[in-house]
Amino acid sequence: MDKKQLEARLIQWAEEYGGGRYEHIGYSSRNLLQSLIEHQGFVPGTGGYRGILINTPGDEVQSAVLAMEAYGYIRPGRTLRCEYFLKSAPLELKLQNLRRAGIDIKRPTYYDYLAIAKAFVMGQLSKENAA
């Protein structure tokens, strides 16, 4: 696995796990009032049953990130989540979010943790693909 493939997998992971993943299984991402306003009083049907994919590329990355945190690499794991779940946010906002989670780091350390996390995830994904 090269860096380009890893980046694509991390982006897929962020799209799947970064928010809105559970809205189709009963956890609404909007409240009723928002829907009424959007649809000007008409509330469309739910659209029926939608199956949930399992063992997706995002699930594989999530497993690798959870393994990293289980091995004690919590700060790199949280930094990776912050980087990809808040992709368009400025770095200062990402650092502020990490501070709120109890991880007070500076810019160079942020990039060090990001490199550690990417290397760990790449190793885990390569190991899974080799098996």
Task: Please describe what this structure looks like.
It is a single chain. The protein has 131 residues and is mainly α. 63% of the residues lie in helices and 0% in strands. It is built from six helices and no strands. The protein has helices at residues 3-17, 32-38, 57-70, 74-85, 91-100, 107-130. Helix 1 (3-17) crosses helix 3 and helix 3 (57-70) packs antiparallel against helix 4 (74-85). Residues 21-28 have low confidence and may be disordered.
What's the arrangement of secondary structure elements?
Layout: H1 3-17, H2 32-38, H3 57-70, H4 74-85, H5 91-100, H6 107-130
Provide a compact summary of the structure.
With about 130 residues, the chain is mainly alpha-helical. About 65% of the residues lie in helices and about 0% in strands.
Low-confidence stretches: 21-28
Q: Total number of helical segments?
A: 6
Mean pLDDT: 83
Major β-sheet annotation = none
Percent of residues in beta strands? under 5%
Distance between the termini: 14 Å
- Please compute the radius of gyration using only Cα atoms: 18 Å
Strand segment tally: 0
The run of helices and strands is: HHHHHH
- Shape summary: globular
Helical content (DSSP H or I, runs of 4+): 55-70%
**Structural class designation:** mainly alpha
Taken together, the total number of domains comes to 1
